[in-house]
Amino acid sequence: MRRILALVGLAAVPLAVLGVFFVLPVSGMLSEGFWVDGRFDPGAVADVLTRPRTLRVIWFTLWSALAGTTVSVLLGVPAAHLLHRRRFHGRGVLRALLLVPFVLPTVVVGVAFRELIGEAGPLGFLGFDGSAGAIVAGLAFFNVAVVIRAVGAAWESLDPRPAEAAAALGASPAQVFRTVTLPALRPAIVSAASVVFLFCATAFGVVLTLGGLRYSSIETEIYLLTTNLLDLQAAAALSIVQLVAITALLVVTSRLRAVADPRLARTTARPPRVSVGDWPGVLATVLVGVLVGLPIAALVVGSLQVGDGWGLGNYRALTTGGSRDALLVPVTDALVTSLRTAVDATWMALSLGLLVAVVVTRRSHTRAERRVRGLLDGLFMLPLGVSAVTLGFGFLITLDEPPLDLRDSLLLVPIAQALVALPLVVRTLAPALGGVDDRQRQAAASLGAGPLRTFATVDLPVMWKPLLAAAGFAFAVSLGEFGATSFLARDESPTMPIVIFHLIGHPGAMNYGMALAASVVLAATTAVVMLAVERLRVPSLGAF
Amino acid sequence: MLTLDGVSIAYDGVPAVIDASLRLEDGEVLAVLGPSGSGKSTLLRAVAGLEPVTTGRIAWDDGDLAGVPTHKRGFALMFQDGQLFGHLTVARNVGYALRLRRTPNAAARVRELLELVGLEGYGDRLPATLSGGERQRVALARSLAVQPRLLLLDEPLSALDAGLRERLANDLRDILRAAGTTALMVTHDQEEAFTVADRLAVMRAGRIVQQGDIAAVWRAPADPETALFLGYARVLEGESAGTLLRAAGLPDDDAAVAVRRSALVVADAGPLAGVVVSARVTPELIRLVVEVDGIGAVDAVARLDTHPAAGDRVSMVVDASRLAVTPTTS
Questions:
Q1: B212 and B269 part of one domain
Q2: Which of A418, A495, B24, B314 could form a disulfide with A349 if both were Cys (CB 3.0 to 4.6 A apart)?
Q3: Count of the separate structural domains present in chain B
Q4: b/e per residue, A485-496, with b = 16+ CB within 10 A?
Q5: Which chain B residues touch A440 with a CB distance below 8 Å?
Q6: Is the dihedral of CA A384, A385, A389, A391 positive or negative?
């Protein structure tokens, strides 16, 4: 009992933050749906759910997420083999580059795809613009990296001897893969696929910028309903659908989560060179390269186009507010705001995430304690399942009166972004902390080290790299966060994604050119952060 | 002095240790011997403050230890696999507790400790470059650094191979004696316990079934199961026990008798006779299983220059020092 109290004590700070800045706003938003004019009226929610448009939105969300997941897995698994089990020149660089899309701001990716496949773009003749295929391609763009990373890490540490034994018994390479390798990788693949499905189903920026008027997912529909139509009830109803579905998915995912055995020795054998038999991996990697490289190339090329010629005019224009008063502040100011916000969001997400990771990874002594830890673990993953739009709007309607009048606080945006980044931070830190043999801590304690000293001796040496990596993640997520920020950022101090979205919404060639240039700047900033993280070689990046 | 008074420990209501009482005098080495799953490690962890005690009391010199956290108990715990801190050198591992207490002249003390465990000059190496035996020596030096009032050893030698284990067990005993350390060791290996400890407590299914001076426990196991666990090959009861005791010249008072594998020795004109069932040559002697008249199948040994084969009839004498009379099961 005392241990459970200590556990809850340690969890108190993150719980309080989660309660005030997550549960309160989200439930505030949801209750909008159930209370009409101060009266409890759940029937209205049911009405919304039977609207034909609602059903269409739900259906689209499901199948686009499923398609995005399928493409990501089909490309990601062979590419993971090439990138993690074969040796070739430039492998490290390629691995790092293919990880970058995962943290690119969604708005930037939307802009890049439109530049590539739009009417005037190099692939405009395909008539891909505004199609569902473009959205699926956009979803895959982000999430192939997740599959490559998760499956690759599992593949890399796979003991090669069972496969060698099967080969010695007469199994062909294809049979070895089907009967030995694939079953061993299945937990990693399934867990990667469910996370990717989650990301696809809650994708916001990509669907909003690529879907146009024809396609809407639950997430963008919530945005349209709240901002354009002011139909809060319908938005709340959709939020509930999303919350229930994602929570169910999270429960399933946590059951499937591949638990890496920390005692399992990682193989150290040098991987062989690439051979002819590796063609599926080579092909998949090339396809991923095309999928990731083309939109970015189109974006960079487009940003350098001024009128009919070439030049840096679009970049120079970033110090202005754009033509026809598109913006209240120059884009450069927005970049400063973005960076400052990201620094705040990073330290918040990091300190919260570290506490949560410590709480959920400590060894449980009793079943009750284990259950409490499991519950906390799930609770802190919830921001993953709640629409950032719901969160942002919930902030607006619940944190607007004393004692919590934070509408004008500069910390509102970083807090929201920190909560969005929290699951990623926890999932980067928890495997590293969980991999520490508890007896190391006991050894330190028995030699006279107090809890803090024990942490410094045992945990910190293995934690500093994941901590830096998690900081990089949080920073990148904050730089690109759009869903919640679009509600909370004040007009006079917008962040980069908000500015880019404004610019593409305003007519004028100069505004569009500026949007492209701003996207390149934002993408480059996140890419630099991400490449620095990759240099740390943390094995469990975003291991969900 | 460590005192355990009716200590019980349960996980989720499943008892792991039941009503354990022990006393450990200063300067003594006590081995808790038991098969895996007997609760001995749980008991040790409770003494270290790593497991909460359900009922009962653990005390040091009459001061109750309940509520004293591990790092304030002044006991050092040495794990089966050392648990050295991988990122610290050998010297920094050994000096860890000294640094925590800001002990002056720590470097000299570290050198002295490394010498004590026979690892002079290893100070600058990293644990990953050491062999298993060397790592355990470093772990021992680390545990002894601040002269803990009690050293807790959790299967300290089990992770090592047989030859090394024997050598290190002797060293461990000498080092503990030289340092005058009070120690509580848990192990499943009788030889290890016999080599290192002065006193022995035997644990089975969560209960301490017997404790006392190590030779005394060996001479008189508390019950047949304990006898088997202590390395006696068979326990005879009833009529066959009586026959054997009479042949050994011991009083036959309806007890069970535990027999070591070398208790019966093939010799001309011995009081027992039987037919050899199987014979196996080992480097030192021949090990037999003999169907003895009036007793049944028991183990016996013969000198290497004799050649008993299966089916031969042999006569045997009994070495009474290799028998232990125990109360019967009933």
A1: no
A2: A418
A3: 2
A4: bbbbbeeebbbb
A5: 83, 85
A6: negative
Which of B203, B222, B241 delimits the end of a domain? B222
The dihedral through the CA atoms of B248, B249, B252, B255 has a sign that is negative
Residue A262, class by beta-carbon neighbours within 10 Å (0-12 exposed, 13-18 middle, 19+ buried)? exposed
Max Cα distance, chain A (Å): 74
Residue (of B251, B252, B256, B261) closest to B230 by Cα position: B261
A366–B142: do the CB atoms touch at under 8 Å?
no
Structural contact between residues A145 and A101, judged by C-beta atoms closer than 8 angstroms: yes
Q: What is the average pLDDT across B181-192? A: 90
Q: What pLDDT score does A403 carry?
A: 67
Burial pattern A27-49, b for ≥16 Cβ within 10 A else e, equals ebbbebbbeeeeeeeeebbeebe
Last residue of a domain, one of B197, B222, B247: B222
Best of A447, A460, A463 to disrupt the B interface (most B CBs within 10 Å) is A447
State whether B258 and B187 are in the same domain. no
What pLDDT, on the 0 to 100 scale, is given for residue A541? 46
**Same-domain pairing of B72 and B168:** yes
Phi and psi at B102, nearest 5°, equal 50, 45
Burial (CB count within 10 angstroms: exposed 0-12, middle 13-18, buried 19+), residue B243 = buried
The three-point CA angle A150-A134-A292 to 5° equals 45
Nearest to B78 by CA among B164, B159, B140: B140
Residue-range domains of chain A with CATH = 1-34+313-544 (1.10.3720.10), 42-262+278-303 (1.10.3720.10)
Nearest Cα of chain B lies from the Cα of A468 at a distance, in angstroms, of: 19
Q: Cβ contact (<8 Å) for A445 and B70?
A: yes
How buried is residue B13: exposed, middle or buried, by Cβ count under 10 Å (0-12/13-18/19+)?
exposed
Range scoring the smallest mean pLDDT among A356-360, A379-383, A476-480, B212-216: A379-383
The overall average pLDDT reported for chain A is: 80
How far is residue B271's CA from residue B248's CA, in Å, rounded to a whole number? 8
Find how far residue A412's CA is from the centre of its chain.
Answer: 20
Confidence (pLDDT) at A72: 93
Asked if A68 and A143 count as a contact pair (C-beta separation under 8 A), the reply is: yes
The whole-angstrom separation of Cα A353 and Cα A443 is 26
Q: Assess whether B322 and B192 both reside in one domain.
A: no
- Could you report the per-residue pLDDT of B142-155, keeping only the tens digit for each? 888 888 889 999 88
Please report residues of A whose CB lies closer than 8 A to that of B74: 448
